[in-house]
Amino acid sequence: MSVTILGIESSCDDTSSAVITNGVLRSNLISSQEVHRQYGGVVPELASRAHQASIIPVVDGALRAAGIGMDAIDAVAFTQGPGLLGSLLVGVSFAKGLALSRRVPLLAVNHLQGHVLSHFIRDTATAPLPQLPLLCLLVSGGHTQLIVVRSPHDMQIVGQTIDDAAGEAFDKCAKVMGLPYPGGPVIDRLAQQGDPSAFAFARPSVDGLNYSFSGLKTSFLYTLRDQLRSNPSFIDERRADLCASLQRTIIDILLRKLERAAQRYGIVDVAIAGGVSANSGLRTALAQLGERRGWRVYLPPLRYTTDNAAMIAIAGHYKYQRGEFARLDVAPQPRMGTLC
Ligand code: KG4
Ligand code: ZN
Fold it and tell me: N or C: which end of the chain has fewer CB within 10 A?
């Protein structure tokens, strides 16, 4: 039996819709909201309004790109959380309306589970899937987690940040340097011309497999403040070195715990996911570490690193197989704990 899932993602500032048939991707459309750039961060009220305006064109575009009509959809998967309440509400309400009118079931997906399952999106039916168990470092704008993936339905968070997320560290440090939002990709680009050992920033000492990034952010801020006192053009003169050193520190912090987790759980299949997994320095450093350690390393294609509906549709695909349907009174959950 053929199963076609329509996926909808609206948790933050990207409106996205995708179509997956039998686990194979047919289309994935993303409309990124530019309106937030001028404010240096996502403005929740504006994000909800932009989702409201773009959701129909985006879903329509995803169906067209897949070459199907509404009548071909067997279920609607949507992001239930975590995310911004107003943004989530647009996607949840739209999914409900569609499911009601087409008389098809609803699949409520955890956004973070979606990021992990981006490694299970296939463009062809014969493309290989990651070997399990998989250790996945999920690094996004709001989360930093180490996850042991035993199956698409069985994921365990074994470590996470106790304060800021890695993406937040990139974005906040970029902001104090006067760089545009989101800062991660800008730092990535500038770091390529800088010296990663030019500056030393504080590295946290957190027990076990947990992370902390707030100390690094403060240390970065203090370095700027001290240097600017004697040299007002310090940031302009040393921007590339600052970016390279900051990025190197974030990568070191991330990989040290990833290595520890792989050892503790005896896992040799290692992946990264989420927006920060697009970082070129992190990708290279992980590939090198994997070679030294004898891991099979999974780097997501760049198009599946930041928010997209393909990952929501593939998570929906696995939920559909198990008959895990949501009720019509399902509500958005801005803070969602467990992954599956
Ligand atoms: O997964 P995502 O699109 O949204 C959330 O679910 O949060 O991640 C967004 C985050 C932002 O913090 C952004 O700065 C970061 O991913 N990011 C990057 C890069 N591309 C996106 N950080 C570092 N290097 C990049 N190339
Ligand atoms: Zn995300």
Answer: N
